[in-house]
Design a protein that fits this description.
Number of strands: 4
Distance between the termini: 41 Å
Shape: globular
Structural class: alpha+beta
Strand order of the largest sheet: 2-3-1-4
Helix content: 40-55%
Oligomer: single chain
Number of helices: 7
Strand content: 15-25%
Radius of gyration: 17 Å
């Protein structure tokens, strides 16, 4: 059985949460800190055992499989561009930048030209935010700069104009200009 990738939103029960979660030794574990909770990203072949360990040190808000897309987006062809943009907007508003990035890759994989480059810049912006959540601020700053430049060069002026000059967390965006 292959390990499945799980995303949990959790609230710590103590200030020693980050070291305690590392002690559990989850498989391929990534911790992202949002403003209101943490996102745990890991692989497991025994979800119940891992959830029991995790519940000892934090309250679990939600459990989802990382590969799952909303049911309306699960079909490969044709992609529903506007539905993807709206779902990405919702994820961004909740600081779920990693999931928004994965969704936008669906559009990026189908596009060409400047629009593809603009979507790539938006994805890079989300990557910068994810690195910040992973407590890697220097990476965030560098990727943020490249993302701003890419969006400006590719004609994503509506989104570019929403961005601060320098990296800030969190960032909220209005993606209405991307709807078709």
């Amino acid at each position: 059985m292959f390990p499945e990738r799980i995303l949990l939103l959790v609230k710590p029960k103590s200030c020693e949460f980050e070291s305690a979660i590392k002690d559990i030794k989850l498989n391929r574990f990534i911790l992202r800190k949002l403003s209101y909770c943490y996102e745990l990203d890991f692989r497991t072949t025994d979800i119940q055992t891992d959830l029991t360990k995790i519940q000892n040190i934090c309250d679990i808000i939600s459990v989802e499989r990382a590969e799952e897309l909303p049911s309306d987006l699960s079909q490969k062809e044709p992609i529903n561009h506007n539905l993807i943009i709206r779902e990405a907007q919702s994820l961004i508003a909740r600081e779920r930048y990693w999931k928004a990035h994965v969704l936008l890759e669906i559009i990026w994989n189908k596009e060409t030209g400047y629009y593809r480059k603009g979507i790539q810049g938006l994805i890079w912006l989300l990557v910068a935010l994810v690195h910040y959540q992973m407590q890697e601020p220097s990476v965030s700053d560098e990727v943020f700069k490249r993302a701003r430049t890419r969006m400006q060069e590719s004609g994503f002026g509506d989104i570019y104009s929403q961005l601060p000059e320098t990296f800030e967390y969190p960032i909220s965006l209005n993606l209405e200009s991307l709807l078709r």
